[in-house]
From TrEMBL:
<keyword id="KW-0413">Isomerase</keyword>
<dbReference type="InterPro" id="IPR005952">
    <property type="entry name" value="Phosphogly_mut1"/>
</dbReference>
<feature type="binding site">
    <location>
        <begin position="153"/>
        <end position="154"/>
    </location>
    <ligand>
        <name>substrate</name>
    </ligand>
</feature>
<dbReference type="Pfam" id="PF00300">
    <property type="entry name" value="His_Phos_1"/>
</dbReference>
<feature type="binding site">
    <location>
        <begin position="60"/>
        <end position="63"/>
    </location>
    <ligand>
        <name>substrate</name>
    </ligand>
</feature>
<keyword id="KW-0312">Gluconeogenesis</keyword>
<keyword id="KW-0324">Glycolysis</keyword>
<feature type="binding site">
    <location>
        <begin position="87"/>
        <end position="88"/>
    </location>
    <ligand>
        <name>substrate</name>
    </ligand>
</feature>
<comment type="function">
    <text>Catalyzes the interconversion of 2-phosphoglycerate and 3-phosphoglycerate.</text>
</comment>
<feature type="binding site">
    <location>
        <position position="33"/>
    </location>
    <ligand>
        <name>substrate</name>
    </ligand>
</feature>
<comment type="similarity">
    <text>Belongs to the phosphoglycerate mutase family. BPG-dependent PGAM subfamily.</text>
</comment>
<feature type="active site" description="Proton donor/acceptor">
    <location>
        <position position="60"/>
    </location>
</feature>
<dbReference type="InterPro" id="IPR013078">
    <property type="entry name" value="His_Pase_superF_clade-1"/>
</dbReference>
<dbReference type="InterPro" id="IPR029033">
    <property type="entry name" value="His_PPase_superfam"/>
</dbReference>
<comment type="subunit">
    <text>Homodimer.</text>
</comment>
<protein>
    <recommendedName>
        <fullName>2,3-bisphosphoglycerate-dependent phosphoglycerate mutase</fullName>
        <ecNumber>5.4.2.11</ecNumber>
    </recommendedName>
</protein>
<comment type="pathway">
    <text>Carbohydrate degradation; glycolysis; pyruvate from D-glyceraldehyde 3-phosphate: step 3/5.</text>
</comment>
């Protein structure tokens, strides 16, 4: 995590505390940046003791052979038009990465016994996030728990698409800024009654 990321996470926690938000259960991915973001925010809130469930289904989209390349390197290697298709299309995944390479997750003990995808489109990411929402997060909400989720641009995009019923052709253009808590207020059926960035209220 960068120093700026740590500052943003701390500021987000301080903002949530200042606005009177509190939580009963937290969820995050198995990736370090989301875990660190959550811990820094919870520490700023004085809530490091809250229970946290970590799951790979909240991980960032797997960019396959593009993982680890910055935008300029990716464009130089594959061409701007192709890179735009991979990054912004709804259902076209990037090429597979090199087996056994630095970003091959098959030997990472966090994922032992889990068939982790080696490349994903946004459609694929949504398809793996939503079962976790249905199995773990939605039941916690139905039980009356206040939930905090620390995840990544595309896994959060999957949840926003689901909750706000955003069409496939519009979700690829939705940007989720880092360090800006999004608040969903839900009715008993988990239908949103309000959605806003906390910094705007």
């Amino acid at each position: 995590m960068t120093e700026q990321g740590a500052r943003e996470a701390k500021a987000a926690g301080e903002l949530m505390a200042a606005k009177g938000l509190d939580f009963d259960q937290t969820f995050t991915s198995l990736q370090l940046r989301a875990i660190k973001t959550l811990n820094i925010a919870l520490e700023a809130m004085g809530r490091l003791w809250l229970p946290t469930e970590k799951h790979w289904r909240l991980n960032e989209r797997h960019y396959g052979g593009l993982t680890g390349l910055d935008k300029a390197e990716t464009v130089a290697k594959h061409g701007e038009a192709q890179v735009k298709i991979w990054r912004r299309s709804f259902d076209v995944p990037p090429p597979l990465g090199e087996p056994g390479g630095a970003f091959d997750l098959s030997n990472d003990r966090r994922y032992a016994g889990i068939p982790i995808p080696q490349t994903e489109s946004l459609k694929d990411t949504i398809a793996r996030v939503l079962p976790y929402w249905d199995d773990r997060i939605a039941p916690a909400l139905r039980d009356g728990q206040r939930v905090l989720i620390s995840a990544h641009g595309n896994s959060l995009r999957a949840l926003v698409k689901h909750l706000s019923n955003i069409p496939d052709d519009e979700i690829t253009g939705l940007e989720i800024p880092t360090g800006q808590p999004i608040v969903y207020e839900l009715d008993n059926g988990l239908t949103p009654t309000d959605r806003y960035y906390l910094s705007e209220r």
